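Quick start: read one record
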Amino acid sequence: MNLDLSFWFAVFLRRIHYFILTFVLVTAASLAAAFLLPPVYTASSTLLVESSSIPGPLSAPTVQAQALEKLQTIEKRLMTRANLLEIAKKLRAFKDIDKMTPDEIVQAMRDNTRIGKSAGRGQATIMTISFDAERPAVAAGVVNEYVTLILQADVELRTRNAEDTVEFFRQQVEKLSGELDIMKARILDFQNANADALPNTLNFRMNQQQLLQSRLSVVERDIATLKDQRERMLAIFESTGQVTGSTIAQTPEARQLDQARQQLTTLLSTLSPQHPRVRQLQAQIASLEEIVRAQMPTSGAGGQPGGTAASMLDIQLADLDTRIQLLEEERVRIIDDLEKLKVSIDKTPANQIALDALTRDYNNIQQQYNIAVDKLAKAEAGEEIEVRSKGERVVVVEPASEPTRPTRPNRVLIAGMGSVAGIALGVAMVVLRELLNRAVRRPTDLVRAFGITPIVTIPYIRTPRETRMRRAGFVALLVLVAVGIPAMIYAVHVYYQPLDLILQRAAARFGIRL
């Protein structure tokens, strides 16, 4: 396919007014925007999360939030509606702020504010904050207000968290101290109520029980011995008329009789009555009794034992009865004490379980109390660290200063891009106009349309008047576009709304951040 450049060049010349109008329109709009858009100054500040100046092993700070998390919390508090409105009205951040609604002011402040955060393993945590404004002083002032609020929020966050932590553990210590006092009182009441059956005196009471049982055996043996002695004394008196152990002199046979009876008593404790030695001793006792009975003195009248022996018997029997009675009373007392000890010993296991439960609860509370006291001490040390700003804190690395040059708009770039866009749109307008034109303009169009070959073609020839009228209309339209478009843009900027706000709203509608 051959490309007829001369034809297309002629077409371009014939349609050049479309190109010129489009180019002038776009270029004029771009130039107007470039010179009417207000200058934007950007001020920025850099903040750093500085680590604690006191090593953690020596005294861990109370506030231990991650640095990036802390910056995110501070950012959310900073960009609240109340803060943004206060800063904007205080510094007159926008030229027409009196005509703006609170929602528009807040949205404009958020659109013009940029906050960046960077953090990583082994890297410092940094926050950069910047603000765009039409005046350098406003840009720097807003950023400095932001920095002031950030530092205040950091101090408030650290001190408040430290104070809340101290107050919490102080309440815990007071609460656990009260519980300890209650448990002490309960243990003391239980010990007082069960003083005779406490586990710590169990060995003493068991030893006491053994001693009482031994003493009971001795007492019962003594009672039996005294009763047996009383019976022997009566038997001797009845058989001999004498009293054993009396002051009256005994005959050798009487003394031998007493010894034989004692031997008999000893043998009967180990041998049966039918044992030969026992029978022999019993026969010897019977013989001695006959001899002693014959030797007993008699009274002159009735042949009864003398009055002295009878009186002595009564005295010794009374002594024996008194001793037996005392031993019986002691026996009753010992049995009563043994019963009480048995009851207290039986109660001791249950008391042991109850006391162990109380002691376990007391030890658990004591352990919690000790931990709470330790944590309270650490919290108070952490509070002191935060009050003296020795812990992790946000510091200003680079404060905001008034910019000397605007950051945007780039007027040369806008004008140049507008000119290039005007050229491209102008050419596109010409090409589109020709693509939509289906008229016959060349001999080849006649051959293609009708299948005939013309002998000669005669182009349309305009008269000089038509040419002048055509050119005058084009010039008038060109002047209208070149002057009217900038004038219209200027009128919109001055009397309706600034172009920067219009562009910001349009960009926000399409999700573009300028």
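The chain has three domains: 5-37+409-509, 41-173+386-398, 200-255+291-373.
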